[in-house]
């Protein structure tokens, strides 16, 4: 009998940087166990060029990436989602989309690198830092013993991942 493959959707507003990064990270880190998708509530219609550049330089597969609406995942023939994670940044005043239905959800907010200003080096750093934070959170996620956790315990773990201070280890609630 084959192991279940979990479908995961990463949501943000524009689906041009953060959610795209999360999609490719999970598709690599969780290969054979997870299938990742990304979408936006107000998609930009294209993936931010700095996102593609960084992903290529870090040897991620960028073929087939596109900015798309979350409505694609609400159709009858859409993949049944097991997890939905929002990656928009509440601290910047972004309003994250809310996903209806039964998948497990959590908020893993990170700053939008596409909104970064400054020198070219500072902007590239913002993209690299976002990739690092998402990579760390996703690696924590793929290491969870999903089959052994009840729904409440799993929800707590998912929420903890989103509250990681530097996205390397979950912080305990104060």
Helix-strand blueprint:
Blueprint: E1 6-12, H1 18-29, E2 34-40, H2 49-57, E3 83-86, E4 104-107, H3 120-142, H4 151-162
Helix pairs in contact: 1-3
Overview features:
four-stranded parallel beta sheet; single chain; alpha/beta
Describe what this molecule looks like in 3D:
It contains four helices and four strands. It has helices at 18-29, 49-57, 120-142, 151-162; strands spanning 6-12, 34-40, 83-86, 104-107. The longest helix has 23 residues, at 120-142. The protein is globular, with a radius of gyration of 15 Å. The chain has a single domain, classed as Response regulator (Rossmann fold), CATH 3.40.50.2300. Residues 167-174 have low confidence and may be disordered. The chain has a four-stranded parallel sheet with strand order 2-1-3-4. α1 (18-29) crosses α3 (120-142). It is α/β, with parallel strands linked by helices.
């Amino acid at each position: 009998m084959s192991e279940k493959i979990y479908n995961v959707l990463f949501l943000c507003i524009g689906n041009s940087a953060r959610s795209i990064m999360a999609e490719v990270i999970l598709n690599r880190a969780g290969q054979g166990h997870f299938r990742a998708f990304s979408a936006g509530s107000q998609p930009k219609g294209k993936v931010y060029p700095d996102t593609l550049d960084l992903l290529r330089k870090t040897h991620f597969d960028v073929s087939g990436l596109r900015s798309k609406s979350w409505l694609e995942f609400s159709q009858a023939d859409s993949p049944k989602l097991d997890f939905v994670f929002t990656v928009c940044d509440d601290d910047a005043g972004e309003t994250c989309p809310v996903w209806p239905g039964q998948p497990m959800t959590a908020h893993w907010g990170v700053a939008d690198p596409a909104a970064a200003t400054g020198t070219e080096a500072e902007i590239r750093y913002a993209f690299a830092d976002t990739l690092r934070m998402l990579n760390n959170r996703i690696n924590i996620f793929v290491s969870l013993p999903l089959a052994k956790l009840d729904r409440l315990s799993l929800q707590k773990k998912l929420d903890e991942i989103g509250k990681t201070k530097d996205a390397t280890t979950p912080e305990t609630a104060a």
